[in-house]
Amino acid sequence: MRATEAELVDVLRERGIVDAAGHAALLARRPGPWWLMLLQGLAAWFASLLIMSAVSLPLAGFGTTALVRGVAGALLCATAIWLFRRDGLFTNQMALAFSLAGQGLLVWALGDRWDLVFDNQRQLAGFGVLVTGAMLLPRASRLHRVVCGLILIFDVGVLVGTGPGVEALGVALAAGVAWSCVTRPRWTAHPRGGLLGALMLAAGVAALALPAILRLARGDAWAAAFVGHAGFAGGMGWLATGSALVLFALGAYLLRGVSQRLRLTVAVVALLWVLAFQAAPGLIVAAIVFLAAFQASQRTLAAFALLAAVLYVGEFYYLMDVSLLHKSGLLALGGVALLAVRSGLRRLNPGDVS
């Protein structure tokens, strides 16, 4: 716990917001040094692997039938739920390992037990949605909820496939992140606010990663780049168009209280950004996620958005099948858009000299 956080706890005690027991409990929750937390996490995962290995060996004597896998998976998930209730760094990491292993065994068992109308991958993904969704409901750590959220979104993507539907999923994720960030004050105090916040982070990371995953799923773009046939094969027009609309809507909402002239300027800047990076929708999604996260003071999500933007600029530069002069012109156009954004921000904050 940083000094400012410790001082805040003392202020809460002085003003009578928390009693002596609550004050002591808050101080007891202070995290230790990062290296100690890392060692505890590694020790928890190592202990979890040893325990799961010790349990799996006797179960292997009963065979590897779907029933055995299902029972083992259910026991691991139940153990994870019990460990999460203890709310400690070591137990939370152990619970995460047990939960992921249990979910995998349950999905494997259910996929072998029932043959539905889907192909094998979609069938497993469908059961994964049910199992992971159920594990999101009990009390758990934030990391567990974020990981489960990512798994859930991945399963939904497998169900949708690599066609236009998955592009609609990407637009929905970007829009969901934008909406959850701008409405954060309304739900942050809700009893399920912690779960919603974790899902927001998972949706943001998934939205940022989806354009790259989809490009690789539709064609081996990086291999093509190495052999000299680089190109943005399998364009994502629906994702680019939908993300552009979300970006315009987000900008209009954030600037609803400013002058008409400034709103028009920002609209022109957003249009320039969309036109410059129409072939790289990942940059449009990164702009949406960063603006929404910055407005909601979500530093982790904003950092992911900036990292994704840097990576997508590299992909845009090296994979786009156009001349070097064309690439440079588009990047310069993006730079002009960023300078215009800076000018607009300085007008909104005249005292800021940065």
TrEMBL record:
Positions of the DUF4401 domain: 33-347
User: What keywords are annotated for this sequence in UniProt?
Assistant: Membrane, Transmembrane, Transmembrane helix
User: What single Pfam family name could you report for this chain, choosing any that match?
Assistant: DUF4401
Q: Does the keyword Membrane apply?
A: yes
Query: Transmembrane segments in this chain: where?
Result: 34-60, 66-83, 95-111, 123-140, 147-175, 195-214, 226-255, 267-294, 301-318
Per its UniProt entry, which superkingdom is the organism in? Answer: Bacteria
Question: What is this protein called in UniProt?
Answer: DUF4401 domain-containing protein
Q: Which organism is it from?
A: Thauera propionica
